Amino acid sequence: MSHDLLVIGAGAGGLSAARAGVRARLATALVTDGPIGGDCTFTGCVPSKTLLAAAAAGASATDALARVRATVARVAATETPEALRDEGVDVVEGRARFAGPGALVLDDGRTLAAPRIVLATGATPLLPDLPGLAAADPLTTDTVFDLDGTPGSLIVLGAGPAGCELAQAFARLGTAVTLVDRADRVLPGLDADVSAVVADALRREGVDVRLGTGPADVEALGDGRLRLHDVEADRLLVVTGRRPATADLDLDRAGIGIGADGAVVINDHLATTTAGVFAVGDVAGTQHTHAADEMGRIAVANAGRPAWRRRRFRPHLVPRVVFTDPEVATIGLSESEAGPDAWVAEIPMSAVDRAVTAGREEGFVRLVAGPPPGTRRLTRDGLRKVGGGRLVGATIVAERAGEMIAEVGLAMRTGALTGRLAQTVHAYPTWSLAVRQAAAALATGASPGVTVRRAVR
Ligand SMILES: Cc1cc2nc3c(=O)[nH]c(=O)nc-3n(C[C@H](O)[C@H](O)[C@H](O)COP(=O)(O)OP(=O)(O)OC[C@H]3O[C@@H](n4cnc5c(N)ncnc54)[C@H](O)[C@@H]3O)c2cc1C
Ligand SMILES: NC(=O)c1ccc[n+]([C@@H]2O[C@H](COP(=O)([O-])OP(=O)(O)OC[C@H]3O[C@@H](n4cnc5c(N)ncnc54)[C@H](O)[C@@H]3O)[C@@H](O)[C@H]2O)c1
């Protein structure tokens, strides 16, 4: 059967690519070996955010898990094969591998060919090589949301976004949680003071946070319980990262390269090392639903264009939100990444009236601004004279940080001077007024409660 576009994988990236194909009037087939919606709907964002919301609302463990199942079913019902076929996508159920550069073969022997292929096969949980791990029947994000009830005690191994979110959710549902990471802080990819706020919040809620741990065996205790280091628990949840799903795809038959990090090698245009084949989402090394979604659209647009007319995917414009309480939202460069030419404006949430009225003063807004392109290193006064410079990044820790980061993304996307945020009237008393207050300090010289400094590594 012949198509214009083949998309492999029906998660966020594949769905976005397939819909973009239909919009571009391409005969589009979406090949999937799993349910439509992928990780986000079934094992990622939707169940984890539902569990967090139910736990925050004080639901019982049983109700929270029932709410997870109901919400996943509700979201999944909007993305059935039938609904996609109605949209014009030819949904092909089966597992695909490459037979050659423009050709796929399915597990039942069917073949498909197209001049454009988008690879969107996602990622799978990565389990560390710990002696005794398999025998302890560890939970992963593929299985934890299927539990009938919450365990009395739980070790969460890995304090990245998944570990911190799930540790907080289970603790709030009454489980005795120990959060373990070999790094010396939670969320080790973020600035150290972000980690400190989140670790404090988790500890206040009773999570036993153990950091800087060395390698250890997992020991089965015979009664269904297990021990890791000196911690005993009913169950172990392993959230130590994810591996791009490239196995059994026969990528080498099509000449598609894989990098040292295990992700498919792509360039700024999302093209792989093989002409006509593009890769998007987790299989290409990104880690968020909205990144996969954006990449799907860009890949399809680029697949029909010569290299000089292609759009670039700009990872620095992708916000990242950790949905702990408080939330952590980042975009672009952190202070330590920005370099000594950048300026930083920072306001603690204790100086923001909405946070004070809500009794939620932990956290801060940190804007990082650089000189406009072509401008030399600027003094503090020089920065003010160029409208506060242009934002190159932001880090927000606050109850609603995930909502607050969007306007920073808009400013960065449009290249607006920081002063534009300061000139924009924000309703009082909103959380996002903190962003305006910080922007005002860069653009006008002073703003109550805000400190301005050169970026520190
Ligand atoms: C617990 C958890 C919470 C998360 N929370 C968030 C969040 O709040 N916000 C956020 O932005 N991101 C979150 N993520 C990450 C997000 O879920 C992923 O980044 C996103 O779903 C990746 O989409 P994708 O399309 O790249 O891959 P996937 O959704 O994994 O889709 C890939 C699909 O490809 C199919 N497939 C694989 N191989 C083949 C093959 N050979 N043939 C046919 N089909 C194949 C699979 O069936 C799979 O469904 C979370 C992840 C986890 C684990
Ligand atoms: N809110 C969100 O957007 C969200 C939420 C959850 C997950 N995700 C995505 O899902 C993916 C998986 O998340 P994750 O938190 O599992 O991965 P991660 O790679 O972000 O974090 C893994 C953590 O495990 C630790 N670790 C690794 N091996 C270890 C070991 N042997 N012993 C002890 N600690 C170990 C690391 O130090 C790190 O802190 C990521 O791509 C993440 O971005 C996103």
TrEMBL record:
Q: Which residues form the Pyridine nucleotide-disulphide oxidoreductase dimerisation domain?
A: 318-370, 389-438
- Judging by the UniProt lineage, the source's domain of life is Bacteria
- Tell me where in this chain the FAD/NAD(P)-binding domain is found: 4-296
Pfam families per UniProt: Pyr_redox_2, Pyr_redox_dim
Name the UniProt key words of this record, in alphabetical order. FAD, Flavoprotein
Q: Which cofactor does it need?
A: FAD
**Similarity-based family:** Belongs to the class-I pyridine nucleotide-disulfide oxidoreductase family.
- PANTHER family linked to this entry: MERCURIC REDUCTASE
- What protein name does the entry list? FAD-dependent oxidoreductase
